[in-house]
User: Which sequence fits this backbone?
């Protein structure tokens, strides 16, 4: 673990059902949490195309669709899946400790 990297509790596990997305904050960073087949993933919550929260979008399997202009990203990797988005989104390591969902962020 690099200096300054640490785990931040962002939500309870019970707050994120199967196939759901949830917007949270980790030390002021807007983060989207995704439940894909019981596994939890985390990414930046802002679309790279326009100021839109991905947590307001639609999760289809492991792909999140932005609510504004239908930009799509793989939630496991952050990879952008074509126009209108100009680039990928950042993803974050996630762990579940007890009933806490924690995201690793850089300090």
Assistant:
């Amino acid at each position: 673990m690099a200096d300054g990297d640490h785990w931040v509790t962002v939500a309870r596990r019970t707050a994120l059902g199967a196939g759901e997305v949830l917007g949270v904050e980790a030390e002021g960073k807007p983060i989207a949490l995704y439940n894909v087949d019981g596994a939890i993933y985390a990414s930046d919550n802002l679309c790279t195309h326009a100021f839109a929260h991905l947590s307001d979008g639609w999760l289809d399997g492991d792909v999140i669709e932005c609510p504004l202009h239908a930009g799509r990203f793989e939630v496991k990797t952050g990879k952008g899946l074509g126009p209108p988005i100009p680039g990928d989104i950042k993803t974050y390591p996630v762990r579940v400790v007890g009933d806490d969902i924690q995201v690793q962020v850089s300090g």
Summary: The mean pLDDT is 93. The chain has no helices and ten strands. The first strand starts at residue 5 and ends at 12.
